[in-house]
Amino acid sequence: MEESSGLSSMKFFSDQHLSYADILRPHEARARIEVSVLNLLRILNSPDPAISDLSLINRKRSNSCVNQGILTDVSYIFLSTSFTKSSLTNAKTAKAFVRVWKVMEICFQILLQEKRVTQRELFYKLLCDSPDYFSSQIEVNRTVQDVVALLRCSRYSLGIMASSRGLVAGRLFLQEPGKEAVDCSACGSSGFAITGDLNLLDNTIMRSDARYIIVVEKHAIFHRLVEDRVFNHIPCVFITAKGYPDIATRFFLHRMSTTFPELPILALVDWNPAGLAILCTFKFGSIGMGLEAYRYACNVKWIGLRGDDLDLIPEESLVPLKPKDSQIAKSLLSSKILQDTYRDELSLMVQTGKRAEIEALYCHGYNYLGKYIATKIVQGKYI
């Protein structure tokens, strides 16, 4: 970018060729905030101040690109270098402009105090301090992504901790710094809660004799598999995010994939567009994560449910697709990254107008899930 008196030309770390968020130490993140604020103040104090635009990476699907793995098995989505602008002089975006600086101010304080906060905690702080600018959680979430796009650093680097819903169970030992090792096969059917502290996760020692990592979409199915101790028959580790994955659960799975690169990662999800969308988030990342979209992509394989499993399910257990399913299917089918086998499965869902839940397999008995997974593994039926 060329230097000028306009805010739109200031180098808020938005002039890199690739759109990604760095992981920084606290003092490095504070330095980026300081540079941004000093640049703003320089313009405000100039003889002819000209406050125009904040140039931010466009986080819409139209700005997404695909990196197809060549040297690795992992493909992922990432954002290109198309920009969108938030202007102080535009009535529609003026508040968004101010929100960015309000969030940066709070993040700077958090980093100085060496604290970590969740986005929910951040919302209530901002609601208290700046009620005229923040009235909902979604405004905070979007502004955090704006700050990430502006400073080119991860949320965790800004002192914002992930809220984790994730659980893990099975043949895995976890040892956090300074603590006793936890045997994840002895945590009961509830499993072991995955912390939202990514730094702690990064420094946790992992030991396992598992041969598979199995990601389970639903908490109830996770509970059944762990209660039945399926990991004793199939040497595996079960992980669930209880639906759409949060950053901490994705980070944990990615950490496992790098620690145990030889272990296949298999996903057990409902046969519906939402189940496939959850699988794809683990596998490719999510544009909704902005510049952090790609970071925790893993080479996940789809073990079930799939179209060739419908013969195992009574006709009356198949239910019509919901309008929300159709919206998700349309979005997935327009994706650049969806592989042909997944596209075929999705097309079959749309053609039949039906969906099937994992629980439909209980028609064969409550202990059938373990047999189902074992058969799929032995036959190599995962894509």
From TrEMBL:
State one Pfam family annotation. TOP6A-Spo11_Toprim
Q: Which domain of life is it from?
A: Eukaryota
Q: Where in the cell is it found?
A: Nucleus
Quickly give the catalysed reaction.
ATP-dependent breakage, passage and rejoining of double-stranded DNA
GO annotation, cellular component aspect:
nuclear chromosome
Kindly state a single biological-process term from the GO annotations of this entry: meiotic DNA double-strand break processing
What sequence ranges are listed for the domain Topoisomerase 6 subunit A/Spo11 TOPRIM?
212-377
Q: Determine if Metal-binding is one of this entry's keywords.
A: yes
Q: Which CDD domains match?
A: TOPRIM_TopoIIB_SPO (cd00223)
Spell out the InterPro entries in the cross-references. Answer: Spo11/TopoVI_A (IPR002815), Spo11/TopoVI_A_N (IPR013049), TOPRIM_Topo6A/Spo11 (IPR034136)
List, separated by semicolons, the cofactors it needs.
Answer: Mg(2+)
| PANTHER family attached to this UniProt entry | MEIOTIC RECOMBINATION PROTEIN SPO11
On whether DNA-binding is a keyword of this UniProt record, the answer is yes
Q: Which GO terms describe its molecular function?
A: ATP binding; DNA binding; DNA topoisomerase type II (double strand cut, ATP-hydrolyzing) activity; metal ion binding
Q: What is its EC number?
A: 5.6.2.2
The record lists the organism as: Arabidopsis suecica (Swedish thale-cress)
Indicate what this protein is called per its UniProt record.
Answer: Meiotic recombination protein SPO11-2
- Keyword entries, A-Z: DNA-binding, Isomerase, Magnesium, Metal-binding, Nucleus, Topoisomerase
Enzyme active site? Y124 (o-(5'-phospho-dna)-tyrosine intermediate)
Q: What positions does the domain Spo11/DNA topoisomerase VI subunit A N-terminal occupy?
A: 96-160
Query: Which family does this protein fall into?
Result: Belongs to the TOP6A family.
